[in-house]
Write a structure and sequence with these properties.
The complex is a heterodimer of chains A (115) and B (247).
Chain A: H1 2-32, H2 40-62, H3 73-89, H4 94-112
Helix pairs in contact in A: 3-4
Chain B: H1 13-22, H2 25-43, H3 48-57, H4 61-72, H5 77-87, H6 91-102, H7 113-118, H8 121-130, H9 139-164, H10 170-191, H11 195-213, H12 219-246
The chains are: A mainly alpha (115), B mainly alpha (247).
Chain lengths: 115, 247
């Protein structure tokens, strides 16, 4: 039982972690077959992926998980806006934007409270 | 693309991809996010090897957070599998839009399986940015190089986070958690070129929180479908109008 007990988490990892995740990648491989780079399907897939990507951002900023939840939504939105301004001021530097937003969020957490 | 003659700052092929990944902002982002995932695995009592394996096998941070926290809370396996699967739907359009960029006529399906496994938000963003400058026959290697580099760093960070779990202050953990959404947002803004990109970007930002707030199930799937259709339609409209003006 104990050997089985030690292996059980690994079996679970494959069954409920790896497989339900990897199935989308493999489905993507199948669907991408025979599509060429300029296909309209690619234009749509790219747009859908971009919308989901910024959708994840929107959800994370507004309904923050874990340690981020201890900062108010105003601080999180303000830090995001500051980051975008820094990104533009630094001539479209992603690094500058990310650093500015993160520091602003942490400063807001210190000033307005949090864990 | 006829830009394959333009030299890439990093060289091409797998080594070029490794270097592209190592100098990417996503190095910092991935390390930061995976430190928090390692810490989560530790806090919920999973073995170190198991926690690190989730990074190698799943390679999708949101799915890993769901997997670790749900199993840690002894949720029903079927429920966990469903939640993980729903959170990873975005991988489908990412793989579909990436693979046609790396394939040549001689590429077999099995040649791109590794590339598909390496596909994650960070790798997808960086691959789409670099690949147009990489000669076509070197692109699979290049994309795999970016993926391998980021995944190796993420695995090391998972292990580090597992060991650091008890010493990380809340302020730092919050800062690390904020790195991913901010880098995704800035990259999406930087990589937006055509009308479709901008419409999709804004639609995603607005739709997903709105749908989640209204309690609509599968909010990200609907965001992808509706945002994708809006962006696609806007692009076609724009092109139709431009053609009219030019003729």
């Amino acid at each position: 039982m104990s050997a089985l007990g030690e292996l059980a988490p690994y079996a679970l990892l494959i069954l409920v972690g790896f497989l339900p995740n990897e199935v989308w990648r493999m489905l993507g491989v199948v669907l991408a077959r025979g599509l060429d780079e300029d296909s309209q399907v690619i234009v749509f897939a790219r747009a859908a992926a971009t919308a989901i990507l910024t959708g994840v951002v929107g959800k994370l900023v507004i309904f923050a998980p874990g340690a981020l939840a201890s900062v108010s939504v105003t601080v999180r939105l303000g830090a995001t806006a500051l980051g975008l301004v820094a990104y533009l001021l630094a001539r479209r530097s992603v690094l500058a934007g990310v650093v500015a937003a993160t520091l602003a969020m942490m400063a807001g957490m210190l000033v307005f409270g949090g864990t | 693309m006829s830009s394959s003659s333009v030299a890439l700052p990093y060289g091409s092929g797998f080594l070029g991809g490794l270097r592209g990944g190592a100098t990417s902002i996503y190095m910092v982002v991935v390390v930061g996010s995976y430190i928090s995932i390692g810490a989560l695995g530790h806090d919920l009592g999973f073995p170190l090897a198991w926690t690190a394996l989730t990074t190698l096998l799943v390679w999708a941070a949101p799915a890993q957070v769901i997997l670790i926290s749900a199993l840690g809370a002894s949720a029903a396996p079927l429920e966990v599998a469903l939640a993980v699967g729903l959170s990873s739907m975005r991988l489908l359009p990412m793989v579909v839009s990436l693979l046609p960029l790396v394939r040549t006529r001689k590429t077999r399906t099995r040649d791109v399986l590794v590339t598909a496994h390496f596909t994650s938000i960070s790798m997808w963003i960086e691959a789409l940015r670099f690949l147009p400058r990489v000669p076509r026959d070197k692109r699979i290697g290049f994309a795999n190089g970016i993926g391998a580099c980021l995944m190796a760093a993420a695995t090391a960070a998972t292990i580090a986070g597992y060991h650091l779990a008890q010493t990380l202050p809340g302020l730092l953990v919050a800062g690390l958690l904020f790195l991913s959404p901010m880098s995704f947002l800035m990259s999406a803004v930087r990589n937006a070129r055509v009308t479709a990109d901008w419409v999709a970007l804004v639609a995603g930002l607005v739709l997903a929180p709105l749908l989640a707030w209204r309690g609509v199930g599968l909010d990200l799937m609907w965001t992808g479908i509706v945002g994708g259709v809006l962006a696609f339609a806007a692009q076609r409209l724009r092109e139709a109008l431009q053609n009219k003006v030019w003729r």
